[in-house]
Design brief:
The protein has about 110 residues and is an alpha+beta fold. About 20% of the residues lie in helices and about 25% in strands. The chain has helices at about 5, 40-50, 65-70, and strands at about 35-40, 55-60, 85, 90, 105. Strands 2-1-5-3-4 form a five-stranded mixed beta sheet. β3 (about 85) and β4 (about 90) form a beta hairpin.
Length: about 110
């Protein structure tokens, strides 16, 4: 068998159908995304609207990315430079990595007496 017979040309390559029950995604333009739910309280909810707010972010996003996304919305001037954050009902740092389906809460400062 000659080597020439083993070479494939572009027109010989056919896209394969996805396996049964699977969906084919284009690999070049596909960006993994995730959805999180944002809870806002007190003055934050007054300024940005009642929650929970669904938010779609790129995979690998952090709690700080949620704050950045919220700053693009009308009323975001009510957010301080570094609001208190909680992820899934636990205090969180801005660098906390998020997963699909997480719940992120922005908590305003409270005063009591």
């Amino acid at each position: 068998m000659s080597l020439e017979l083993l070479k494939r040309t572009d027109h010989d390559v056919r896209p394969r159908a996805p396996a049964r029950g699977r969906v084919a995604f284009p690999t070049r333009d596909y960006v993994a995304r995730m959805r999180v739910s944002v809870l806002l309280f007190a003055s934050y909810a007054d300024a940005l609207g009642p929650g929970p707010l669904p938010l779609e972010l790129p995979a690998g996003a952090t709690a700080a990315d949620v704050v950045t996304a919220l700053r693009a919305r009308p009323g975001a001037v009510a957010l301080p430079p570094a609001p208190m954050l909680a992820v899934n009902a636990r205090w969180a740092a801005p660098a906390t990595a998020l997963a699909d389906g997480d719940e992120v809460a922005l908590l305003p400062p409270v005063a009591g007496g």
